[in-house]
Design brief:
About 10% of the residues lie in helices and about 35% in strands. It contains 1 helix and 12 strands, in the order βββββαβββββββ. A hairpin with a 6-residue loop joins strand 3 and strand 4.
């Protein structure tokens, strides 16, 4: 369930699928890919903004490449899951997680399990997973 469904937010940089996003403090209704130490406001949608077959056709026509792992490119509206929503999150390379673990963003906006006091967390996992896995999470906004 997405309580922010219908709220228009724009990506101000390339945002990966199923990753943490933070507000862009210089532009209204804009978000950017979260990095280490950010205070995310949500998680991007788990599907690419360009369908894979269409992506291949565009890349062929333009003799370039487009990424199918982007939820949104800069300037594109973004599907955003906010606090209280349940969605997918990609785990970062810093390790896995267990059910109930709190997650914060790593340098790429992926989930990183933490139990450190005063860490700002933005999701809680419902399942176990390893680096690179998609796990089901509850989006939250709290400090440990």
């Amino acid at each position: 369930m997405n309580f922010l469904n219908g709220m228009m937010v724009i990506a101000t940089n390339n945002i990966l699928c199923a990753s943490f996003v933070s507000p862009n403090t210089s532009q209204s209704f804009a978000v950017q890919q979260s990095t280490t130490g950010d205070k995310p406001i949500g998680i991007s949608g788990s599907g690419p903004y360009i369908a894979p077959n269409l992506q291949n056709a565009i890349a062929f026509q333009n003799a370039g490449t487009l990424s199918t792992n982007l939820a949104a490119a800069s300037g594109i509206p973004l599907d955003l899951f906010g606090p209280g929503d349940i969605c997918w999150l990609t785990l970062g390379t810093g390790g896995g997680c267990n059910p109930g673990d709190y997650l914060k963003p790593d340098a790429m906006g992926n989930g990183l399990a933490t139990s450190s006091a005063n860490d700002q967390v933005a999701a809680r996992s419902f399942q176990s997973g390893n680096a690179g896995d998609l796990v089901v999470v509850l989006v939250c906004d709290r400090k440990l």
